[in-house]
Design a protein that fits this description.
The protein has 252 residues and is α+β, with helices and mostly antiparallel strands. It is built from eleven helices and five strands, in the order αααααααααβββββαα.
């Protein structure tokens, strides 16, 4: 190993020691921050902050690594990142600090390998999960244990099954968002959404032609096949998630 490589490793190890030696965030702040993160940020960055639908892995983010009490991540949450898909969030300062605490706990856990623990995910109540599945406006509105979900527990391991029902829009099986766009001229364009944020809407029509407009210049009706899952993601309690997982894990 060269001296340059040794020096590089020394810098990395020093950063790891610094992060691990920082005070561990209070457990109650981490718990509150986790719920806030999943509800507001989980769809893009994943429930564990490891990256998701278009959002980067925050556990490896330099901004998060250097953050102690939301002094770095706070402005990003409040202001967003103009020109990207990262929106701004109007959250109270206390909630932003809780999110920062959750993110710091994730980076500390990732670096301190001695603290790694293998935890059993399937700890819920399958009967309670079935009741939730069949509740009004819940999963059975679109899915059936005898239809599309028959044998789902054979197709996915527990961790993958959990991620599948929380974030079904991920992966190669993702179904496209459809848009019907009405221009100021009265012309309409329909097709699959190629890009969408607070400012830009881009669509590819049935002939393969690419169209893009500022969001405020058109009227758009969007049909997102995963909209119901995104709504539920904001409603789940921890018990709901574990109970639903236990129920799905029995569908063999």
């Amino acid at each position: 190993m060269t001296w340059a490589a040794l020096a590089s490793w020394a810098v990395i190890l020093h950063a790891q020691v610094q992060l691990i030696s920082r005070p561990v965030p209070p457990a109650d702040a981490v718990e509150r921050g986790q719920k806030l993160f999943v509800a507001n940020c989980g769809f893009c960055h994943g429930a564990t902050a490891r990256g998701g639908e278009g959002g980067p892995d925050l556990v490896r983010s330099v901004v998060v690594l250097d953050d102690d009490d939301a002094e770095h991540i706070g402005p990003v949450i409040r202001q967003g990142r103009p020109g990207t898909a990262m929106p701004s969030f109007d959250l109270p300062e206390a909630q932003i600090r809780d999110i920062a605490a959750f993110l710091r706990s994730r980076t500390q856990a990732a670096i301190d390998r001695r603290a790694y623990q293998l935890k059993e995910l399937n700890t819920g109540d399958a009967k309670a999960g079935e009741a939730y599945f069949n509740g009004a406006g819940k999963c059975n509105s679109c899915h059936s244990p005898a239809g599309d979900l028959a044998g789902v527990a054979k197709r996915y391991e527990t961790q993958a099954l959990l991620e599948k029902f929380l974030y079904p829009a991920r992966g190669r099986e993702r179904k496209p968002v459809e848009a019907a766009v009405k221009l100021a001229s009265g012309q309409t364009v329909s097709g699959q959404v190629e890009y969408l944020d607070d400012f830009i809407l881009s669509v590819r029509d049935a002939e393969g032609e690419y169209h893009s407009w500022p969001r405020d210049s058109v009227q758009a009706a969007l049909k997102d096949p995963y909209a119901a899952h995104q709504d539920l993601l904001r409603q789940y309690t921890d018990a709901d998630i574990h109970n639903l997982l236990a129920y799905l894990a029995n569908l063999r």
